[in-house]
Amino acid sequence: MSLTQRAADPAALRRKRARERWCTLGFLSPWLVGFSVFFGYPLLATVYFSFMHYNQIEPPTFVGLRNWAYVLTQMPLFGPALWNTVWLVVVMVALRVAFGLGVGLLVTKIKAGVGFFRTAFYIPYLAPPVAATVAFVFLLNPGTGPVNGLLARIGIHAPNWFNDPAWAKPSLVLLSLWGIGDLMVIFMAALLDVPREQYEAAELDGAGPLSRFRYVTWPNITPIVMFAVVTGVVQTMQYYTQALVAGKLASGVTIGPGSQIQPGYPDHSTLTVPQLVWSLGFQNFNTGAACVLSLVLFALAMAVTTLLMRKRAGLLAAED
Fold first, then answer.
1. Whole-model pTM?
2. DSSP state of 291
């Protein structure tokens, strides 16, 4: 059989396409296995247990929408936890992106000692979250912290920081701004990648610093800004460790064997949805309600991410 006849043979074409499909699946298999084990199965199990009464000891029993009704209408801490999470997403993400971009602009403009400043801004990001939170709670301690002592010397009435419900979340934002090194590196790379020819053309047209930033820098770094916003939203939706550790240390409660931490100190001002999921699932053994909260958080994160991506797509369409 000639090559032309073999190419035209339907059976040979089917075998060739089948080999190509199996080859493609072979290359995709590591991702497919990882997706199925670490995302697909946990998501399906979460949906399943959200309709069950399950205390992790006895077999699960079907209860219908009872867990959903309890979480959405009867749980007193759901509202404060959701509000704190949304507040942190809006305020913390916005300030981190703005501060990271500002630090990136500053570092790229420095002529002398740029290596020192890059290192100084990046090192705090490498600190473990628990250690960084412990250090911040010590620095901002209203009674013995050096920050309040310094402010008192210059005549400023310092707040109670993590011990004040009105200042607890802003204190967490300050902690996040201290570890801004990751965004600084990302924005610094994006800023250095902006073509110098565009800056030179803008200067020849008489554009000032603000105009060059608006019409040259910003359009070139917009995809990186969107990346920082989306990843920041997803990470802040999962905000857990810093808020829990800060509340525990600020409360002054000593944790011993068998004791439990009540998250959200002071007055549930630092309580986030992930902390509530942990408290329900591993302190109260109410797995069904914890799964409902997880699904609500997942849906909220997906909705916000989709909205941001659609907004970005609309801006690109308008530019075209």
1. 0.87
2. H
* Residue 133 belongs to domain spanning: 77-319
CA angle (241, 242, 247) in 5-degree steps: 105
Structurally, how many domains does the chain consist of? 2
Closest CA relative to residue 236, chosen from 125, 86, 130, 81: 86
178 and 92, same structural domain? yes
- Confirm if 46 and 291 have CB atoms less than 8 A apart: yes
Q: What would the pLDDT profile of 121-162 be if each residue is shown by its tens digit?
A: 999 999 999 999 999 999 998 888 899 989 889 988 889 999
Residues 118 and 214 in one domain: yes
Q: Residue 101 burial by CB count (10 A; 0-12/13-18/19+): exposed, middle or buried? A: buried
Note the pLDDT of residue 14: 85
67 in any annotated domain? no
Whether 58 is in a domain gets the answer no
Decide if 104 contacts 188 (C-beta within 8 A): yes
Residues in the chain: 320
Cα-based angle 71, 298, 171 (whole degrees, multiple of 5): 85
Q: Give the largest Cα separation in the chain, rounded.
A: 97
Look at residue 70 and tell me if it is in a domain.
no
Question: Which phi and psi angles does 268 have, rounded to 5°?
Answer: 60, 20
CA-to-CA distance for 307 and 309, rounded, in angstroms?
5
HSE-CB at 183 with a 13 A cutoff on CA atoms is 27
**What tokens were used for 103?**
């630090």
Task: DSSP for 35-71, please give it.
Answer: HIIIIIHHHHHHHHHTTEE--SSSPPEE-TTHHHHII
Tell me: do 104 and 233 sit in the same domain: yes
| Residue in 239, 119, 243 with CA at minimum distance from that of residue 181 | 119
Q: Are residues 84 and 35 in the same domain?
A: no
Closest by CA to 270, choosing from 291, 241, 235, is: 241
Look at residues 277, 233, 67 and name the one whose alpha carbon lies nearest to residue 264: 277
Please say if the pLDDT value at position 8 is more than 60: no
Query: Is residue 126 domain-shared with residue 260, that is, in the same domain?
Result: yes
